[in-house]
Request: fold
Amino acid sequence: MGDDKRRQRRQRVLKDGRIITLDHRSVVNCMVRDLSSTGARLKCGDQVAVPNEFLLQVGHDTTMMPAKAMWRRGTDIGIVFTGEPIPVPRIYR
Reply:
């Protein structure tokens, strides 16, 4: 069945997202294209600004997920969630 190594099937979505650096100094807007409880596929115009590890806020969620980039192709980034959700600071709401 192909070479899909995901532990859980991703659902197609089209949601705004924000990539927040771990030091909270930079935010990069993105689109969340596929999403599961273990990871996602993001579409991001500025790949250079996206670090390997970051926090992801999806839509207007009040939590963000620690994440790690697993692959990059063109404007797409495949990520895996690396921890539990944490509250979004007021400055990002």
In short: The domain at 11-92 is CATH 2.40.10.220 (Thrombin, subunit H). The mean pLDDT is 89.
